Amino acid sequence: MSSKDSYDAELCRAVFAFAREREAEVIDRPEPLIALPGFSCLGRDFDVVGRIRPQAHRLFPRDPDLNSVVFGIFPAYSSEISGTESVDQASERFGRMLKVSDLNRMPSPYVLVRFSNPKSGAGTIGELPVFVSPDYFVHELRDLEGVEAARLELWNHRNEKWRVRWDGDWRVSDGGQEIRMTGDEIVLWAATVISER
Length: 197
Prior knowledge:
By secondary structure, this protein is an alpha+beta fold. The protein is 29% helix and 21% strand.
């Protein structure tokens, strides 16, 4: 666990105590990145402890022997980790998006998208989805309004998947049913599915 300009001894003790209580799960679970639910610390909003395996982090890039045996732990939010991240995805989330050394950070929800907007030319390359910030997601979602050939797919931390398209109004499908929404409703829907615990 690390911190930069935000050290909080009580929070660090709580994270380590919680991880020790679940040591077998921390070490034995094979997923590169997991969220251990049930965490709390007085005065903090973190609700899980995140754990990243050695192959998915670069905590000690100059010492590969040490790096290969260290598991990273950090206070986190349940909206940030799905548990299905590949090694590359876990590495990206941990190293670029979560800012785990800032113990005063706000949530960085798991927003995995694949989209194409023929009108603006924006979109993901190929078939692999990419992680984006919630703000960027909402921006791109708004840009799809009125573009009938556009497509967008969204995955969240609960591994729920939706398809969103414009057809005179917003249509959101989870593979079972399709719901029609207005512009204001689609933004509220996005905020809910991205950050809801």
